[in-house]
Amino acid sequence: MGAISERDIVTLCGQVGTILLENGAETARVENTVEYVGRAADLPVVCHATMTGIFVSSEKSATTRIFKVRVGDFNLQKVDDINTLSREFTSHKITYEQLQNEVDRVENENRDFSWLTKCFGAGLVSMPPMLLFKATWGDLGIAFFVGIIGYVASQYVGHHTKIPYIPVAVGSLAISMLAHVLGIYGIAHDANYIIISALMPLVPGVPMTNSLREIIERNTISGLVRATDAIMSGISIGSGVIIGQIIIRTVMGG
Amino acid sequence: MSEIIYGFIFGFLSSVGFGIITNNPRRTLIPAGLVGAIAWIVYIVVGWYNHGLIMPNLMGAVVIGILGNLFAILVKAPVNIFYVPCLVSLVPGAILYDSMRNFTLGNDSQAAYGFVKALTVGMSLAIGFIIAEVIANKLYPPVKRYLAKREKR
Known about the structure:
The complex is a heterodimer of chains A (254) and B (153).
Chain A: H1 6-22, H2 27-40, E1 45-49, E2 53-58, E3 64-68, H3 76-90, H4 96-108, H5 115-125, H6 128-132, H7 137-160, H8 166-184, H9 191-198, H10 205-216, H11 220-252
Chain B: H1 2-21, H2 29-49, H3 54-75, H4 80-87, H5 93-105, H6 108-139, H7 141-152
């Protein structure tokens, strides 16, 4: 281990934590994993993670590094990869060099489902709420396709702009316009039910629940950051839907 | 009865669908779908006997927590991977959206009402997870030890 400096280990720990946090792991888990990796590399580290930054500090000396984090979408594949790597490293199945190479690989790689599969997934998510409303089978099918279109719209906009909250707003705008048009032509029975179902892939329900879980575990700062984020995207979805409704009402006089 | 069958099918499909969106590892998709489907059935059945918001969500979350922890040990994945896709059908997303829509329209009292409802659902889900984790921590270490022993052999 002589050739590896303390600073390298701290950097690697920070890298591990950043990947975990950016792709949807909760803060307590990030801190634990980073501290395990540090201990397995013979350098006890202290890690403090919030939603906006990770601090990793060596306990032996004054080496501390701060990593900035931009929390994005869920990508649980990366969380799982890093988790497997850290588990293998702590049980000494792989060496430090291997760990470093693998972490770099996970950071840059983009193993993902194909576009079509993702659209299909978005459609599947859009269906269950319709069951609660006792909707007709026709409406169920419409919700499937409207959900796909909303998801594609928000993803497309997300690739072209860095401004947060705009993608979900555009996605909900598309959903709302489509549902109201279908409702006016009498193809769909109830536009509002279709909107609520089709919004399922966009709506921030999971972040909301995660934020409450963090607050209960006393990670208050991270919990509040996540909660604010969820409320902001809720507001942008709501305004997107309203704007779509107004546009359709003005154009078609429904 | 047919409600339960439809609930199972669509709970499964929606969990798998959200798993695809969040890029779950492929080996966890089917277990996650199963957990989501069972949780959705529990949600429906508890909803028959208790018309409040809290109990169905709480029981659903307890089921997700217990089964999710079990599968996390069996498939060797972090438990969050099961929580996220299974939650999607229970989660207060639609209520939150409705509240924020009322906020945009200027119906402040309805917006506040919806927001409190969303917080209630979120809280009951979170508390359900805590309960499940307490149970799982007592229940599963023997399972873990057994699996570790079998692997060594």
